[in-house]
Amino acid sequence: MPADGSWSTALAIGALVVAVLALALAVGSHVRFERLRRRLLLLQGGSGEGTLLELLAAASRDVDGLHSGLSRTSAELDTVRTDLGRTLRHSAVVRYDAFGGTGGHLSFSAALLDDAGDGLVLTSIAGRSESRTYAKQVTGGRGDAELSPEERQAVADAGWSGGR
User: How far apart are CA 42 and CA 44, in angstroms?
Assistant: First the structure.
């Protein structure tokens, strides 16, 4: 057994080592505790915006609203596409000299068609002393009456060369 003084010194050093280890454990535990406390505050809504579950529920409602809005927008877009397909947006004009000697290419045939090839052809034949205008209905690129070569050309130039 060591002398009385060395025993108390060894005991003091041992107690100091135990105290330092206890302090290190306490600091480590405190750091871990603070991390966990911050995470818990986030989950509980410590930021003042509500709990995490409330925030997730609100985000879910927002996403549902976006899906609903997207469905409505998609349906409206389909309606616009259908309406646009029915507009007379394909057009062409063919100018020509109907009587060979009058000059100036004052006669014309104009085709106005939708996406399905439906619409009309307007033809104006200009002579020396008079002008005549005709309209022919067109369905699927075909005229309700026989189309002249110029009228067929206008329909083709408007994007419908398939039917006459």
Answer: 5
